[in-house]
Amino acid sequence: MSKVNACDCLMGEAKEKCLETAHVRAEAMKPCPIGSAGICCKNCFMGPCRLTSGKDGEEKCGVCGASRDAVAARNFCRMIAAGNSGHVDHARDIVHVFLAVAKGENTDYSIKDENKLRMLAGVYDVDMEGKTVQQIAVGLGEKVMAEFGQQDGKLHMVGRAPRKRQELWDKLGMTPRGVDREVVDMLHHTIIGNDQDPESLLLQGSRCALSNGWGGSMIATELQDVMFGTPFPRRGKMAMGVLEEKQVNVLVHGHDPLLAEMIVVAANDPEMNKLAKAKGAEGINIAGICCTANETLLRHGVPMVGSFSQQELAIVTGAVDVMAVDVQCLMASLPKVASCFHTKIVTTSPKAKIPGAVHMELHEDNALNCAKDIVRLAIENYPKRKTVNIPKETSDVVVGFSHETINYMLGGSFRSSYRPLNDNIMNGRILGVVGIVGCSLPKLEGKGVTATLVKELIANNVLVIHTGCAAYASAREDLLIPEAALKYAGAGLAEVCETVGIPPVLHSGSCVDNSRILIACAAMVAEGGLGNDLSDLPIAGCAPEWMSEKAIAIGQYFVASGALVVFGSESPVKGAPGFDKLLTEGYEKLTGGKWAFSPDPHEMARIIIDHIKAKRKALGLEKAQERVLFDMEMRRKLEV
Ligand code: SF4
Ligand code: MSK
């Protein structure tokens, strides 16, 4: 049975038990055509205003007079603000704990990467002269925390972007001033009777998104590395088969690693293991879902059961004793599905409570005790299991490609640098680099959209970097192992991968870790030979199965940074031709970046490869290979 069919099998089992999962709900749901075209406004109670065409075909406007383009721009920018809030609030929680650790007020966590601490202290101009590690950490934590409420100036991390890009942001008024400020400013732009100019709205949307990519998300990623360790390449396993029939299974799910880090510690506690054995289990198995899984897989080798789309199916195995969730991407249906099994759903954040779940709140000063209580609950629940059906299949993966690792792997221990990567792009062995990021969609389960795109890109010598749930789609197709280079990659990329010993598809983390890709791109510019700005690079970003507002925020910070970003859907603003054109064409004239939309993976690949080739041409690297055109036979081979 393939790993994809394993999910089919669980969906079948859910159906037999008359259990409704997201896959069934997605089939039944007929999205509102006006809302999905971006032209429904409910920003005040004179509406909601549905801006369909009038009888004579004339464009309707809202009661307040708002045009379709203004409404679509406001809706799009509100998605950016909402997406930002998830990432930057996650970052704030991390900084809180980091400061408590630095001040010695929290001993559950510690500082694991002193090198990164010092590097960041340099970015934030922290005085390190004669200071202890703890003092440097306090200095850094206080400066970072101050940026959340900062009103003017610019975020320190912005200084890591190429100088030319920073100057452009200054010129356009897009330089982010404060992490929280830009979200509030964005929402203010969009309330009734305020900004009606799509270009003005998108400029603030860009500033807001940049305060995430080069602010909140980057802060979260970097401080998590300092506290929990910077990922390095390691072997791991993914797919449902990582659940253990004879062990207590605790699943961690969400985004913020503060809980999962402590669950890993609690599960290794000898007392806990003794208790598990007393209940008849052979041990305690921790596994993950979504981005919490990505965090713990990269840092501890904790296996990943599945992505967003599989969270309910994991429960259907009957083998999950506790699913402990933190924040974001948690389906409200989890307790209902769990009620058919013995599984306990445990919420731990006051920001993400779910009716029907057990709430065990994680405070920074009780983190380990809370984690132990959760593991104890799972152990006590283990004997209550009913029928267990765990699909056997697992995927081997090699993960942990942080920006530092890519630097080291491609540059070697004596001269860590991006020079070899740049050289291989310049000599044409690698055509370009693409970040394939974002979610997984229940309605696309088993259709292989993401894996098809990835295979077509690597066949064309494009190095792929993953974050988020997209990585799971590649793992199921065995693309996250070095052997995948020989099987699927073009000759140039395969040669580089074989020489260095890396897969053609590099897994670099969770959704907040898209900031690693920004840093890697800035390092490529700094290395030289590929232009002076991020918009000169032969790169692109893509979210083939996006669904979250966070994805829009991420997409916009890449576009504002100068990249092409392709989303795997029809345009979410297709009902507003003027704003749609601004996103897909006009904005490029301002920032060098632009959006594109297509639900077809082959079309996504075409858009990306054409863009990369155009960038190569502009750089004078015309010697590039011809694109491998996928005929029907090759497409059939890709079918999954
Ligand atoms: Fe309608 Fe304008 Fe109110 Fe939106 S803000 S609901 S377009 S009246
Ligand atoms: S978890 S935001 S479904 S990537 Fe980050 Fe996955 Fe998308 Fe959630």
Structure notes:
- This protein is an alpha/beta fold.
- It has three domains: 61-228, Substrate Binding Domain Of Dnak, Chain:A, Domain 2 (Up-down Bundle), CATH 1.20.1270.30; 240-384, Rossmann fold, CATH 3.40.50.2030; 399-621, Rossmann fold (3-Layer(aba) Sandwich).
- Helices cover 49% and strands 10% of the residues.
- The protein contains 26 helices and 16 strands.
- A six-stranded parallel beta sheet has the order 6-5-4-7-8-9.
- Strand 7, helix 14 and strand 8 form a beta-alpha-beta unit.
- Helix 4 (68-102) packs antiparallel against helix 8.
- The longest helix is centred in the first third of the chain and has 35 residues, at 68-102.
- It starts with a helix and ends with a helix.
- The model has no long low-confidence stretch (mean pLDDT 94).
- The structure holds iron/sulfur cluster and Broken Fe4S4 cluster.
